[in-house]
Amino acid sequence: MIEPKIIFEDSSLLVLDKPAGLAVHGFPGNTEPTLADWLLEKYPDIESVGEPESLRPTPYALLPVSRCGLVHRLDRETSGVIVVAKTLEAYLSLKQQFSSGSAEEGYEGRPRKTYQALVYGLMKDDQGEIHRSIGRSRVNPKLRIVGAKASGTSRDALTYYKVLERFNLLGKVESFEQEERRKKKEGVSDFTFLECYPRTGRTHQVRVHLGSIGRPVVCDKLYAPGKPCLPGLTRHALHAASIDIMLPTGERKVFSAPLPIDMAGVLENLHKASFEQSTKHEI
């Protein structure tokens, strides 16, 4: 089993660095251990922490699912910080934080989450916001989409972003022909590394929002099908870098997880490729 690393632990709270590839909960067809399994093995009493067991539909039956102190989730392929309550009091305190606010009132009371993502193409603006409601796709229930084509009721979703680096592997544009070449190769030769700050917590929110503006996460098989992955990546390039929360004691704390080796290696390769391209252009 791929095990998480403990970032912080006290009598009421557990903060983990979840590795990519580890699912938080089980799902139909999954036979691999999950984060919930790990929690139950290491902290048996945590099974009763949270809301009453819900029933999750499978192709065969409705299976009970325990919360195991989990107040929020990360996608299976997303690495990084995840918070677990060890007591009911801590769970209720955290749940109140995660659910506070609304589209009308704003979301200032919620924990502040920071994600790091590598996307295809060059982001035009250094920073900005994506405020688009998210709902389930009518065509594929695994997909979430923005706009009127969503099935059922869409929910308000807000993500801010800030560009950290741009990687232009085609070099300086000097002619119309080169600009046309860039357009044809965009998403293969241009990349942007950025931070995202989701103020709401919709399923796949960061991935959906970035895809909705034409800048999907690199190697995202669900929202960027057919686009090539970069060498060294076998999962989507999204990492939950930090979370700023209020502890049950009233103290405010920020917990962080370093960029994992796979994403760090890809960025290093992009730096090298960008340097080589700029040197070639200067010559």
From TrEMBL:
Any single GO BP term: enzyme-directed rRNA pseudouridine synthesis
GO MF: catalytic activity, acting on RNA; pseudouridine synthase activity; RNA binding
Gene3D superfamilies (UniProt xref): Pseudouridine synthase
Coiled-coil positions: none
Domain of life: Bacteria
Keywords for the protein's UniProt record, in alphabetical order: Isomerase
UniProt key word Nucleotide-binding: no
Residue ranges constituting the Pseudouridine synthase RsuA/RluA-like domain according to the UniProt record: 13-210
PANTHER family given in the database record: MITOCHONDRIAL RNA PSEUDOURIDINE SYNTHASE, RIBOSOMAL LARGE SUBUNIT PSEUDOURIDINE SYNTHASE D
Family: Belongs to the pseudouridine synthase RluA family.
Entry protein name: Pseudouridine synthase RsuA/RluA-like domain-containing protein
Species for this entry: Candidatus Vogelbacteria bacterium CG10_big_fil_rev_8_21_14_0_10_51_16
Taxon lineage: Bacteria, Candidatus Vogeliibacteriota
